[in-house]
Amino acid sequence: MYAIEVDNLTKIYGKGETAVTALQDATFKVKPGELVAILGPSGSGKTTLLTCIGLINEPTYGRVVIDGTIVADGGWHSSIDLKRMRREKLGFIFQAHNLIPFLTAQENVMVALEINGLTRNDAKRRSIELLNALNLGHRINNFPSALSGGESQRVAIARALANRPRVILADEPTAALDTENGKNVMDLLKKLAVENNSAIMVVTHDHRMVENFDRILEVSDGRIVGEQSIVDIN
Amino acid sequence: MNLAIRDIRYHRGRFILTSVGLGLLLGVVISMGGIYRGLIADALAILNANKADIWVVQQGTNGPFAESSRIPEESRYRIATVPGVAAVSALAFQTIQIERMGKPFRFFLIGYAPGSFGGPPSIIAGRGISQKHYEMVVARSMSIGLGEKLRLGQNEYSVVGISDNIVSSGGDPAAYVTLADAQEIQFKKSNHAIRNERAKITANVAGNNSLSQQQAELLTQNIIASTESTHTVNSVMVRLAPGADLKETQERIQQWNYLRAISDEEQTAILAKGMIEKARMQLGLFRVILLIISGVIISLIIYTSTLDKIRVIATLKLIGAQNRVIIGMILQQSLLMGILAYGIGYVVILLTYEKFPRRIVLETFDLQSLFVIVMAICMISSFVGIRKALKVEPAEALGG
Ligand SMILES: Nc1ncnc2c1ncn2[C@@H]1O[C@H](COP(=O)(O)OP(=O)(O)OP(=O)(O)O)[C@@H](O)[C@H]1O
Ligand SMILES: [Mg+2]
């Protein structure tokens, strides 16, 4: 079974004269544990693709299947509980610091666990475990404002991984980081994909970051124009 | 994990400041309720202290507090003979304003017959009145020392006792003198007026030639005695004998058709409803307005704090938080603000209410109902914030 199946996915923003076709007929599949990069110029539709898979943006046409569940088939599938899917199956990492400013590093991770039904104690234990694994053991009680960009991004990764999601979606997770930190974050994602057997899709501008990826999807003008495995590049 | 408390903890300065402001507002609301209760308590203080069953007053009046009432002093002897009456006591009241230490000094002077009821409720220093004349017991709040002298009317009165606080229905502290002294202060005319009237009466009687010298003198004396008499009282209080019927006794007293017999219950109604009805409406209106203002402030604060949290709310939705998590966060903040503000208001009033110029009576029921009202206002006020929050799209977490 695939972690992600996308079939003729099309997203049109707006209506009539102002309508923008941000994504057109995207079709691909991602296996569990696979690390996929999405490359493409600005405005090509990368974020749109990610948010349609992430159940944040409603697809206009086409079908999206996550971990065997049809979530969209020409619009949301009628019986789908989007929030539940998001908290149970999906993990998000974004460029912007979308950590909650009034929660400490640990609490930012715990909140994802608690809304998914974990008890406070279990959430505590797991969050410490995750933050330790990401070398943030000494930062658990810091608020996001006191964390560096790389540290914030690792907390966001910890939060995205908290519920062992089948799919992790990352939109330019390294854009705000220097090359070294960026590489570290990418290595980490790669390692986690393998460990958790999660499918990971990462949007990036930076070609240097994709060397460890299994596959690259190239997006241009809303279409997937190239699909190559790293093996092909080499 | 409680998101509401985490957010408050992080922004505690802002939260505490707004709660203090709201708290002061609620303090005013609490004190207004207390003032209203104080008005009632003041209005009924003398009534409750005297424990009379019937207040006999001038017919056609709501006396002796709400309206002026004058009846002859001798009616107390007649009333005492009415079947069912166990004890009577005549009272003369008067509000007095004198100058003391350069400031106007107002109090309520009660004249009672020492030995019968209606005197000071309890003496906390000195003694009660024992002489027929020129002794005085004052309420503690008048802050007059034992042995001090006050000039009232044409005589000096020395303070022989301090009573526990007691006030008139208008809230002025009460002082006690003997009935005879009070009558003199209230009803005795000035020497000038007496001389004038005597001359007028003598001249009028002398002008009537049909009277003999002796008749004229007798008539003049009688007229003068009657015009100069101070044997008038404002009310006669009655206590019923055990088992006596209130209604029947009232009716028997009213057979003298210059008297009205008001039961204690009716008197309470006259004072509590009639006299302070306007004050109650006024205070009630202010309280409602202040509560509405509090509600508007709370909803504005909650709304702006929701706007500040749009990204947080979007992020929570993005990671799949249920609506109840988000509604809970906003609602709890609103309620916590209400609880804190209420607590601050309550403590402020608790610490200061004794220093208010008017009596403030804090009743548990009032405090509890205000708390419930404040909680309801908080809930309603958070509605605009919650509506806004529910409209937030998870995609809003992505924007740079
Ligand atoms: N909410 C929206 N409403 C209307 N048009 C939108 C909306 N979001 C994106 N678009 C348009 O859709 C197209 C694709 O946008 P998208 O954000 O997916 O590009 P991107 O590849 O992520 O770009 P970047 O690399 O700059 O992040 C763009 O033309 C954009 O203007
Ligand atoms: Mg983008």
Q: Strand-and-helix sequence of chain B, N→C?
A: HHEEHEEEEEEEHHHEEHEHHHHH
Structural class of chain A: alpha/beta
Q: What is the total number of structural domains of chain A?
A: 1
CATH superfamily of chain A: P-loop containing nucleotide triphosphate hydrolases
As a percent range, the share of helical residues of chain A equals: 25-40%
User: How many separate domains make up the residues of chain B?
Assistant: 2
The portion of residues forming beta strands of chain B comes to: 15-25%
SS strand fraction of chain A: 25-35%
The 3D shape of chain B can be described as elongated
Largest sheet of chain B: 10 strands, mixed
**Main β-sheet of chain A: number of strands, strand sense, barrel status?**
6 strands, mixed
Q: Radius of gyration of chain B from the CA trace?
A: 32 Å
**Unreliable spans of chain B:** none
Name of the CATH first level of chain A: Alpha Beta
CATH architecture of chain A: 3-Layer(aba) Sandwich
Mean pLDDT of chain A: 89
Strands, helices and their partners?
The complex is a heterodimer of chains A (234) and B (400).
Chain A: E1 4-13, E2 20-30, E3 35-39, H1 46-53, E4 61-66, E5 69-73, H2 82-89, E6 90-94, H3 105-115, H4 120-133, H5 149-161, E7 167-171, H6 179-196, E8 199-203, E9 215-220, E10 223-229, H7 230-233
Parallel strand pairs in A: 3-8, 3-9, 6-7, 7-8
Antiparallel strand pairs in A: 1-2, 1-4, 4-5, 9-10
Helix pairs in contact in A: 3-4, 3-5, 5-6
Chain B: H1 3-10, H2 12-50, E1 54-58, E2 71-72, H3 75-80, E3 85-100, E4 103-112, E5 123-126, E6 135-139, E7 149-152, E8 155-163, E9 174-178, H4 179-187, H5 191-206, H6 213-228, E10 232-233, E11 235-240, H7 246-254, E12 259-263, H8 264-275, H9 277-308, H10 310-318, H11 323-352, H12 364-391
Parallel strand pairs in B: 4-9, 6-8
Antiparallel strand pairs in B: 1-11, 1-12, 2-10, 3-4, 3-11, 5-8, 6-9, 7-8
Helix pairs in contact in B: 1-2, 1-11, 2-8, 2-9, 2-11, 5-6, 9-11, 9-12, 11-12
